[in-house]
Amino acid sequence: MTPPILLKGGRVIDPSRGLDHVADLLVVDGKIAAVGAGLAAPAGAEVRSVAGKVVAPGLVDVHVHMREPGNEDEETVASGARAAVAGGFTAVCAMPNTDPVTDNQAAVGFIVRQSVRAGLARVYPIGAVSVGQRGEKLAEFGEMVGAGAVAVSDDGRPVASSHLMRTALEYARTFGIPVADHCEDPTLAAGGVMHEGLVATRLGLKGIPAAAEEIMVGRDCLLAGLTGGHVHLCHMSTRGSVDLIRRAKAQGIRVTAEVTPHHLTLTDHACEGYETHAKMNPPLREAADVAALRAALQEGVIDCIASDHAPHAYDEKEAAFDDAPFGIVGLETAFAVAHTELVGGGVLTLPELVARMSTEPAKIFHLPGGTLAVGAPADVVVLDAAAQWTVDPATFRSKSRNTPFAGRALTGRALLTLVAGKTVHDLAAPAVS
Fold first, then answer.
1. Are 374 and 35 in contact (CB under 8 A)?
2. What DSSP letter does each residue of 139-208 carry, written as one string?
3. Where does CATH 3.20.20.140 sit in the chain?
4. 262 to each of 278, 279, 281, 306, how far by Cα in Å?
5. Residues of the chain with CATH 2.30.40.10
6. Residues marked as catalytic
7. Is residue 3 exposed (0-12), middle (13-18) or buried (19+ Cβ within 10 Å)?
8. Regarding the domain delimited by 58-364, which CATH topology (the fold level of the hierarchy) does it fall under?
9. How high does pLDDT run on average in the chain?
10. Tens digit of each residue's pLDDT (9 = 90 or more) over 76-94
11. Is residue 396 a contact partner of residue 324, using CB atoms and an 8 Å limit?
């Protein structure tokens, strides 16, 4: 049994209950036992002063690529979970575009077992919408949910067939899970490697127009309205998408949406010099899109922040821009990038950022966590909001290093991460090789 832990004198931020004040937090038997001033430490408890630091519900990331099974050289469930807790995440949702695809009960069960074996962040599998992610036949949602899947998605590939998407929303509704969609019209985006705009023209690269995303956002919102199902829109990137989501929510349609730290902070200019670390899908867009995404997050039109952590091997990214794969790692930089740019830039308050990175994603995917309520699992992060550090990919716990933020000075990081009351990350502890 994990011994009790008493965190004393921190700024406790719990958006689930509107808390933001200095208090102590007591963890007993893996659960939150008490939150309040002047708490006494039970016998045998570890007492830790966190004065001047922030105590919050552990961060929750609903969009992560673990690469296991199939590409364990890039990431595994264990290495991804290690990166997660270092970034302050206590729970992550693993996308199904593995090899083989996570499209059945056994594959879902494998991810669950690997998560338990690692004993770090909670890793929740997302099952595929279609068998083999081929977009032809629905996977067995019920069996996957029974094995531990918390959502379905063909992420990495859009669900191109409107009929299949309609059926998926209807079927998923019976199990109370969202359908998370990668919104992209494959015929319009075909061959594109970055945002269609002036930068792509100057670089001589084929672009992906904003309309490729917006067409599918509009379709998914219409189908969610038709079926009453819950559609979750992955990694939104355009101002047109924001307008469509706002309209759908005003009509009471069950739509939620996420945005990544990189789409909130970078533009297509990051691709200058054919910088493959800035190549991602959806692509980095224009300054007006970044402004619209920030405003939508502030307003609640976009519900949460997700990393879209997408590891790739070094030699894959060290290729011609056209040939390099899409994607960047993000678990270890997500909070710091968002805190530096959004809280530092006056877009969100720190409690609002915690809500968008913990309470809201947990609520959307019906996950335990996202709260410090008494009796809740003790998934807790202690954040140093004033810590200044520089991104050095060589120090990442992830197996991969593909980030556009290398050398970037950031403010804010996770000092201590607890999962079920167990210390799984402690920045103050000596490094273990």
1. yes
2. --HHHHHHHT---EE-TTS----HHHHHHHHHHHHHHT--EEE----HHHHTT--EESSHHHHHHT--EE
3. 58-364
4. 9, 11, 11, 10
5. 5-55+377-426
6. 308
7. middle
8. TIM Barrel (3.20.20)
9. 97
10. 999 999 999 999 999 999 9
11. no
Cα 42 to chain centroid, rounded: 36
Tokens in use for 204? Answer: 């001589």
- pTM > 0.85: yes or no: yes
Residues whose CB falls within 8 Å of the CB of residue 191, separated by 6 or more in sequence, listed in order = 206
**Residue appearing with tokens 């800035």:** 278
3-state helix/strand/coil string of 25-81: EEEECCEEEEEECCCCCCCCCEEEECCCCEEEECEEEEEECCCCCCCCCCCCHHHHH
End-to-end, the C-alpha distance of the chain in Å comes to: 26
Burial class (CB in 10 A: 0-12, 13-18, 19+), 429: exposed
In this prediction, residue 433 has a pLDDT band, given cuts at 50, 70 and 90, of: very low
Homologous superfamily (CATH) of 5-55+377-426 is Urease, subunit C, domain 1 (2.30.40.10)
